[in-house]
Structures are given as structure tokens and as C-alpha cells.
Amino acid sequence: MFGSSHCATRSTSPALLALPAALALVLTGCGDSASDDEQAAPSSSADGAFPVTVTGADGELTLEEQPENIVSMSPSSTEMLFAIGAGDQVEAVDDNSNYPEDAPTTDLSAFTPNAEAIAEYAPDLVVLSNDQNGIVDALDALSIPTLLLPAAETLDDTYEQLETLGDATGHAEEADEVISDVQDRIAAAVESVSTDVEGMSVYHELGPELYSATSDTFIGSIYSMFGLENIADGAPDAAGGYPQLSAEYIAGQAPELIVLADTVCCEQSAETVAQRPAFGTLPAVQEGRILEADDDIASRWGPRIADFAESVAAALQG
Amino acid sequence: MTTTARGGAARTAVAVPRARRRPGLALGGAFLALVLAMLAGVWVGALPLPPGAVVVTLLDRLLSPLGIGVPGALEGTQAAVLLELRLPRVLLASLVGAGLAISGAAYQGVFRNPLADPYLLGAAAGAGLGATLVIAYSPVQSVGPVGIVPLAAFAGALVGVGCALVLGTAAGGSHSPTLLLAGIAVAAFLAAAQTLVQQQNTEDLREIYGWLLGQLGSSQWSDIVLVLPYLGVAGLVLLLCGRALDVLAVGDDEASSLGVHPGRLRLVVILAASLVTAAAVAVSGLIGFVGLVVPHIVRKLVGGSHARVLPMSLLVGGAFLVLADLVARVVLAPAELPIGVVTAFIGAPFFAGLLWVGARRR
């Protein structure tokens, strides 16, 4: 339902995927095949150099021209597209994409995507994080190019997706700049914290039902970079990367940092946490080390992950 | 109503086998099982506590209002975990289990249908819609110390049952098949409305989903204060209706001739059972299978007389849910399993086994 479901991938055979691309090449690119081959190779293309071939979880995709009517069906992709300067090419975004503010929000549902509704925007590229309801096949049937970029599991996945989107939209250089900026800011955030925090225990909260995230998750990897001990890691693998912890386990682990990723959805705050039964005795509560994070920033794998790393650093310093 | 019913119940009780004629013993055994289950419930948990100290601490808190202190009680986080987390959780589990089981037994009696359960007549669907609406749209999540989700679930369950009753009565009086069908229609409509709200608010899915599966993990003393009055009053009414239900089992005409008003009795039992169900759902979400399976287990133990099935269901239901919650805490510890998953996982095979054994005996 959440988290892990983003990992859904498509099982279409590579041959089928290559077919439309090959056809497109035959129809339009016969003239200067030598230069085409050179530029179609992934990652070698410079800005504005089309056609270009990029790889998503749904296989290779060749774009003949720079896409001008992009539909983004994932909040993380929307944030990436705008960060790399492709915002002007974005025609529509799904109903959960609420950042940046000037993103052209629609009522397109990413949860129950509808191919016809997406087709109305006449997109020349649809970016998705999820192949719900067989949406990729449905868009394929309408000859609409799709790029499936599933939920990142590591920071490297984020950088790779930024690069892919840079290539696909003709903003490769800006994407590289964003990547190094994010990398620099995260490194600086980690650097800014004294090594004393290593081994400090952290509890990341996804909801008042006490769902948490282990070090195996994307957000958990941030805590690992700071050398923090994630108390959710005590849950068995069978519970998945997002186990529902018991209140008394959390109390028993006595976390020294609590990060709330349920401040918007569920109105949790340092105050409400302190009022919970048995939570008043926790070191994080007594020392006031509770980070009230923005749910969206703490759950998306876009460029704002650097903001999150900085806020973790600030909480650790304070 | 109950005084007039007593004579009839004595007559129907003649059919009960000799071995099942010791309700006192069965009740005592069930009560002991409940106490043992609750002790196990407060002892087992993610944070290991010495069993001796647990008992000492409980005694200490029990006796402290009398000015008696018991040495060796737990302190700090350990005491907080025991008294603020485990104890309310175990108490709430026993109350919710007791409430669901007794209302299941009452529904099965009043509808003369072995498949009836507390969520019949749109109680679950109504509670689901109420909770979903509030999770999705309410700008505030609590009113004072009380969460708004339980209140909305409570109201939703009552609205669901109320619609079913009005529709059913309008369509065919208190004739039970008509009422059941009205309940199915109302439940389907409310469930569809809930799905619609859910689809419009996908960002709240995790919270809605967590609530629907049932949860006792966030039990607080305030939840107990919320559920206890309803369970106390409506539960008492149900217990008093036991003998009248036995009379009703003989047939409407016979019951009338014995002084039991069938229509009025049905309404009272349905309202009381629905009130208990609504209160239980409000604090725990939708915990399935307890209300269906516990009365059947109880009937195997003490026979079909409602005068015995209802109080026994209360005790066995409480013990069953306390143990199910214990399993939910242990299986994936320190992660938790939703308790609704556990009750179905334990209840369904156990129930099937009972049916199998029963079939072989015949």
C-alpha cells in the first residue's frame, strides 16, 4: 500500500519495448544514421541533443525531440523536473504534486491513473513512479512515451533519476549541477555535526500508529550517513522496511532523537509526543531533541532531500 | 420483560444436556481464563519486565489508595510502560473482546442466524465511513483529550444501524430477513461511499488502512473511559434479555403467549448490541471474527441457552482478544501485527476445526 508498493516494475519483454523505438528510428532517422547512433547512446548526449535514449524501469525510451508537453505523475519527479529547469516543459502534474508552487497541478490521480485523462494533455512524455492499474501498457497502446522512475532506495537512485530526467528533457548539465549541489549540501550537513552523535539512537515516525522506517529505506539511509542508530532496525525483516513498532519498544529503546514525518497528515508535534503515555520519560523528549519534519520533504526522493539532511543536522546540533 | 420471561426459560432449559447444566462452573472457569490471559498480557511485551516486579507493582498501585505501600515496585520507564501502556491496552482488549462477543451472541440470537456478527446492519461500514471522513477532511484531530476519529466512528456506526433499522422496519416490520437485507443494502452503500472518499484522499490511505485493520497499540486510559459506560449499561441490558431470547427461540407466537413482546425485545436487543459494537469499534477500529466465532465456541461449551451464552461470551471474548493482542505483539516483535489480522488467523482455523469435530460427532 505504501513505500514498498513503489517498487512495482513492469514485466514487458525488452523486445516489445524496443519495437516502437526502432520503428521511430526507421521512420525519422534514416538520413544521418552515423551521428544518430553516437548521440542515442545514453549519457553521452549534451544539452539539447536529440534524439536521446534513456532507461527507466519500463525499459529503454528513445525521444526524437525535446519533450515540450510533459505530464509528471509523481511528486518526486515533479520536484526533480522543476529543479533541473525543465519546469516550463511540464504541462500537467498529478494531484499529489504540491511542490514547487508553480507546478501545474491537476486532478489527475497517481493512485488510480487513467490513461484517457492523461492523454487529454497530449503529452510527449509521461513520468511515473508507479505502474498502477497497468497504466504503462495503456499509455503504450496510445503511443505515449513513458518513463517509469520508481521510489528510490538509495541516494544514488535519486542522482540517477535526476540524470535520466536531465537527459530526457534536454537539461543534462543543469541536472549535473543539481546533483553536485545536493551532494555538497548533504556532505556539509553531515560534516557540520560533531562525531559525538555517532551511535545516537533515532526514531523516525511515519504516523501516530507508530509506523517507522528502517536503515534499508531511502530515508533511513540519511540517518546512516550521520552514524545514527535506527531503532526500527530491531524489527525483523518480515516486517518490511516500514514496520509498525510497539509503543513500549520505542519507550524501551529510549531514542535520543525523534523525527516526526507526520506533522502535516496527523498534526503530531513535540507537544503531542510528550503527552503520549510513557513517552515523557524518553531522552529525546526530555532534551527537546524532536525534529518536526515536513511529511512531504521526508518522504520524497527529490532534491529537497538536502533540506531534510540539513534539518537533521540542525536538530543534532541543537 | 425479564421477570415474565423467566418461567419460559426454565421450560426450554429442560432440553439442555446434563453435562451442560453447571453454568456456575463454566462461568468460573471462563473468569479464571480471563484473569490468566490478562496477567499474561501485562507480563509479555517488547520491553522485558520481571514477572515478580509486575505483580508487585500492580499490587502496589491497587493498595496505595488504602495507604499501603508494597516494596519492590517498578519505577521510571519500566513503570510507565507497565502502567501507562500495557495495563490500559490489556484492559481495553478485554473490554472490546467482551463487547464484540456479547453483541455477536445477541445478534445471532435475535436474528436466529448463526452467521450474524456485531458488524451486521451496517455498523462496520458506518464506522468506517465516519472514521474515513474525519481522517480525510477534519481540520482538527481531537476535541480536548478525546480523539475525534473514535467519536466519528461511533456516530457512523449508529447512523449505519439506524438507517438499516428504519429501512428494514419500513419495508417489513421487524421480520428479521427483511432487516438483514436492509442491513446489507445500507452496508454496501456506506462501504462504497467510504471507498469514494478514500480514492479522493489517497494521501490519508495509510492512516485509514491502519484504522480499518483494527488497532489496540495506541490504547489509553481515556479510551477505556470512552467504552466502559456503553459496555456497562448496554451489556447489562443484554444479559437481562438472555432468558427472553430463549423464549423467542421457540417462536414469536409462543413467546407472545408467554408474555414476551417479540418486536419490542428485538428492538431493545438490536439497539443494545449495536451500541456496544459502536463503542468497541470507536476505540479499536474494525476487529473481525471475535463476535462471530466466540459465541459458537461458547455454545459448544455450555449449550444454546442465551441466559448462559451471553455472560460466557462476555468472559471468553475478553480472554480471546487479550490473547490475540498478545500474539499480535509477539509474532513480529518489536514490530506489531494489526490485531484484526491475528483474530482472523487464529479464529478461522479454530472455528473450522470446531465445525469439523462437530460434523464427525454427528
TrEMBL record, chain A:
Keyword set includes rRNA-binding: no
PROSITE patterns reported in the protein's UniProt record: FE_B12_PBP
InterPro entries tied to this protein: ABC_Transporter_SBP, ABC_transptr_periplasmic_BD, Vit_B12_bind_prot
UniProt keyword terms in alphabetical order: Signal
Signal peptide bounds: 1-34
Domain of life: Bacteria
Protein's name according to its UniProt entry: Iron complex transport system substrate-binding protein
Source species of the chain: Blastococcus colisei
UniProtKB/TrEMBL annotation, chain B:
Chief location: membrane
Cellular localization per UniProt: Cell membrane
GO CC annotation: plasma membrane
TM spans (from-to): 25-46, 66-83, 90-107, 119-137, 149-172, 178-197, 224-245, 265-298, 310-331, 337-357
Record's bilayer topology term: Multi-pass membrane protein
PANTHER family xrefs: ABC TRANSPORTER PERMEASE PROTEIN MJ0876-RELATED (PTHR30472:SF25), FERRIC ENTEROBACTIN TRANSPORT SYSTEM PERMEASE PROTEIN (PTHR30472)
Protein name: Iron complex transport system permease protein
Source organism of this protein record: Blastococcus colisei
